[in-house]
Amino acid sequence: MGRRPNGPKMLPSDPPLDKGHIPWFGHAREFGKDPAKFLSKMKQKHGDIFTIRVAGKFITILLDPCSYDAVLWESNSKLDFGKYARILMERMFDVKLPNFEPSDEKAMLRLTLQNKNLSSLTKAMFFNLKTLLLSDQNQQWQEGGLFYLSYSTMLRAGYLTLYGNEEENYDDPSSQDKDRAHSSEVYNEFYKLDRLLMRAARSMLTTVEQKEVARIKKRLWKLLSVERLNCKANKSSWLESYKKHLEELGVDEDMQSRAMLLQLWVTQGNAGPAVFWLLLFLLNHPAAMAAVQGELEKVLGHRGQTMKQMHGISQEILDNTPIFDSVLKEALRLTAAPFITREVLEDASLRLADGREYSLRKGDRLCLFPYLSPQMDADIYEDPEKFKYDRFLNPDGTEKNDFYKRGTRLKHYNLPWGAGINTCIGKFHAINSIKQFVFLLLSCFDLELKHPGSGIPEFDKERYGFGILQPAGGREMFTHLSRKARDTHSMFKCSSSAWRGRRTGEATRL
């Protein structure tokens, strides 16, 4: 049966082992360079479960969505997700929390992001988005990057919503100016760090990069210091609960600032890129844009108010946009690529849905990669690499949730938000925030690609495993943006040809 290097003899119940050709390093280079491509190749070679060696670590990969629940709901005493989380917290953010238990923290914070607190967060996000998006009355065409527009606006508004405003009065122009200036400073520093975080997570930073990361973190820790946050107005219950949690753990103020930066990445690092891909798919697919516009006209057009006059969008409206929901699910299916990781704490067996049973070795790592299956699985989705805005709609316009693999209906057919105890606790707040941003943008602005038909940029392959992907090389998709003369829902009516080719006025750099 062979033998693991410096380890016990292989058992018949072990998953297929692919050690690679380089001692200790194994497949580290291929896995790090393009995880999706490498794991696809391994799946073709070994099937939907196998073990690889990566930099001295043995990682068992499971790519059968019918069997994911066997991992997702296993006891933490056998398959632990906290150990790897603690490793990444320290590598990426220099955070060490005594007696840190991710499951306990999630349970505590979940209450602050859902149920009765969701309404206040949604309303605050709406006001903060308006502050950032609707301050400029200029109706001339402006040129700017779609990724910058999406990421900066979502992160800044999300930051103000969770961490608080500079002053209490949302509507005061001077307060809004302060919020715009401060949130811009936070985003600019955060984005510099974000571009290096994936290399930090893999311990691949050069000496020069390590020094740069240290400088950026120091500036962000100051911006997110306990002293600064204590002076904030309109702080969310999430912030108050998290501060109390850190204090109960006995964390000093310096480490609290570091933890606040970690949470900024956790809570805000994916929504902006998700909006970017969603808007880019809409701009490249006129039929999808027309369908979304028609739905928004239907649910918003009867109110007789402009977006600027509105004080919020009700949860009832946000929950009744099946076309937009399908567009969002499809955009996330194509671009959400997190790993779901567990550390094997004791020798155990893993029983798959088809009855096969495999051994898991203590000290190994177990990893699910839903991006490959179910999300990009041709056995589940027709033309999985293509964007189809109505993929998650039935012919009668209701939500489609019946998808099959080898004749078995899938519980897990799309996992951008994780699953089981890994499910994102901020999912509902994130969805509401994405909807509000897109609704405001399409209500109040005309938006078109500078180069129609330029397609979808390649992914930054370093991002595989860490949430929503980003365009490779920081490539921007430039757009022309113009404030509508009248911000009203009735102005959604716009032909597909206009979206493809309209030009009005001279474009200026944002």
Give an overview of the whole structure:
This protein has 510 residues and is of the alpha+beta class. The protein has two domains: 17-93 and 339-385, Uridine Diphospho-n-acetylenolpyruvylglucosamine Reductase, domain 2 (2-Layer Sandwich), CATH 3.30.43; 102-333 and 417-509, Cytochrome p450 (Orthogonal Bundle). It is 46% helix and 11% strand. It has helices at 28-33, 35-46, 69-72, 82-93, 102-113, 116-133, 146-163, 173-201, 207-223, 226-230, 237-248, 253-268, 271-284, 286-300, 315-318, 322-335, 371-375, 427-444, 496-501; strands at residues 17-18, 49-54, 57-62, 79-80, 142-145, 340-344, 348-351, 357-360, 365-368, 404-405, 408-409, 445-449, 478-483, 508-509. The longest helix is centred in the middle third of the chain and has 29 residues, at 173-201. The chain is globular, with a radius of gyration of 24 Å.
